[in-house]
Amino acid sequence: MAAAKEKEPLNMVHQNAILCETTSKEHKHQKLYTQFYINPYTKIHSLTGKPMSVHTAVDEEEPNFLKVIHRSRLEPMKKYSHPQTESQEIGWNTTPLIDSDRTDQRLNSYRKNTELTNYMEAAWRLNEPIFR
């Protein structure tokens, strides 16, 4: 086997060049956020003040923040005018296309009992074994 080469120690110039290249790459892909928002989709747990401290007047609630919070709790049909995903398309329009007429016997056949069906039902009940 060949003898293992010893690595040359890095000098300060090379280490500084590596550091400069790393920081320039970081700055190129870095995005600076200056405005922060509370996520309206998470539940907020408010904490009460300390019992022995003197509280100032209740802070006025921001109406825009309350509107965002209340809107996040709504169903998708009340939030949006049209479905946002393909799975929301199923069942988006829940209103029936035509009004149903319950008196039309062609579409609504209810169970009817006559004398003959009542008699046969009673006969079947007498002949069936009772399991207890």
From TrEMBL:
It is found in: Cell projection, Cilium; Cytoplasm, Cytoskeleton. Residues 76-98 are annotated as: Disordered. InterPro entries: CFAP144. It comes from the Eukaryota. Keywords: Cell projection, Cytoplasm, Cytoskeleton. The keyword Repeat does not apply. Coiled coil: none annotated. Residues 82-97 have a biased composition (Polar residues). Belongs to the CFAP144 family. This is Protein FAM183B-like.
